[in-house]
Design goal:
Organism: Myxococcus stipitatus (strain DSM 14675 / JCM 12634 / Mx s8)
Radius of gyration: 16 Å
Bound molecules: N-oxalylglycine, manganese (II) ion
Oligomer: single chain
Pfam families: 2OG-FeII_Oxy_3
Number of strands: 11
Number of helices: 3
Largest sheet: 7 strands, antiparallel
CATH class of one domain: Mainly Beta
InterPro entries: HIF_prolyl_hydroxylases, Oxoglu/Fe-dep_dioxygenase_dom, Pro_4_hyd_alph, Pro_4_hyd_alph_FE2OG_OXY
Protein name: 2OG-Fe(II) Oxygenase
Distance between the termini: 30 Å
Shape: globular
GO biological process, one term: cellular response to hypoxia
Length: 206
């Protein structure tokens, strides 16, 4: 991992975010750092610390694997680990999104999600409803080596007025989209599928 390396958006990425509401980048941190982060994510998933994702907030919170079948856990800042270094890259990405795309982002949460396979999926949803939360941008990084078509598990984006776009969750792929604007879903997954998702909040958020 390049300490202090900058993350900059290309003109095409900025334009895609503005017009379509998303962009993808096939190589975010480079193979070596990606393999190290993947190894840590896998170890965490296998250690049993992840828990079933809920689908509603607060008292209404329930587990419903017919809506989403992943196991999740937060990734906090941590020195001297590959996941901590990846978290730093997400922080730099947030800065780049603010400077390059004027999103005015502040803090972010980072979540590790593991779909165990066996058809686990996440039904079509948005990450933020306008006015209800201050989540502005979603960035997802995938940690799956040798992902095959028959493993399913693509992220399907539904950009407005455009055909759906499928993104296979391949190692080191990054996808960034506007949290309120892009409906999306995870199609049934037939192999273990690891992803790290950052939700960036508006700067005015507490
Ligand atoms: C989510 C989500 C998509 C993915 O966790 O909200 O939509 O590709 N994840 O893992
Ligand atoms: Mn989502």
């Amino acid at each position: 991992m390049l300490k202090g390396a900058r993350v900059e958006l290309t003109d095409l990425e900025v334009e895609a975010l503005g017009t379509r509401g998303f962009f993808t980048r096939p190589f975010f941190i480079g193979n070596e750092a990606a393999l190290a982060a993947r190894a840590e994510a896998l170890a965490r998933a296998e250690s049993g610390v992840l828990h079933a994702a809920g689908i509603r907030r607060g008292a209404d919170k329930t587990q419903d694997s017919s809506v989403r079948g992943d196991l999740i856990g937060w990734v906090e800042p941590e020195p001297d680990t590959a996941l901590g270094a990846l978290r730093e890259r997400f922080a730099l990405l947030g800065r780049a999104l603010s400077e390059g795309a004027y999103l005015g982002l502040g803090r972010f949460d980072l979540q590790l999600a593991c779909y165990p396979g066996g058809g686990a999926h996440y039904s079509r949803h948005v990450d933020a409803f306008p006015g209800q939360s201050n989540r502005r941008a979603t960035a997802i990084w995938y940690a799956n080596e040798a992902w095959k078509t028959e493993h399913g598990g693509v992220l399907r984006l539904h950009p407005k007025d455009l055909p759906p776009v499928d993104i296979p969750p391949m190692l080191d792929t990054l996808v960034v989209f506007l949290s309120e604007r892009i409906e999306h879903e995870v199609l049934p997954t037939h192999a273990r599928r690891l992803a790290l998702t950052a939700w960036f909040y508006g700067r005015d958020s507490g």
